[in-house]
Amino acid sequence: MMRNFASRLLAPSARAALMPSRAMSVVSGPSTVRVSKLEKYFLAAIWISGISVIPAWVLTHIKEYKGPK
């Protein structure tokens, strides 16, 4: 009984390993939509500020985190 249950569980994964997927396609080449430099700089500024906000907050409030001496 347990053997039959295990074989039913393993059958789909074994079948997937033996049969290659046919529904894949890879498109390589230049992008079809051009992104302006202004938009790239704006998004980079958002990324940089988003990454550095928490460390800056911690560094400015480090005395509060350490507590009174």
Describe, in plain words, how this protein is organized in 3D.
It is a single chain. With 69 residues, this protein is mainly alpha-helical. It has one domain. The protein has 3 helices and no strands. It has helices at residues 2-18, 37-60, 62-66.
Keywords for this structure?
single chain; 69 residues; mainly alpha; Cyt_c_oxidase_su8
What's the gyration radius in Å? 27 Å
Estimate the global geometry from the Cα principal axes. flat
Tally the helices. Answer: 3
**Number of β-strand runs:** 0
Q: Could you tell me the mean pLDDT?
A: 82
Give helix and strand order, one letter per element, not per position.
Answer: HHH
- Main beta-sheet annotation: none
What share of residues is helical? 55-70%
Structural class: mainly alpha
The tally of domains stands at 1
The CA-CA distance between the termini, in Å, is 68 Å
User: In percent, how much strand structure appears in the residues?
Assistant: under 5%
Question: How would you concisely characterize the structure shown here?
Answer:
The chain is mainly alpha-helical and about 70 residues long.
Task: Provide the fold topology.
Elements: H1 2-18, H2 37-60, H3 62-66
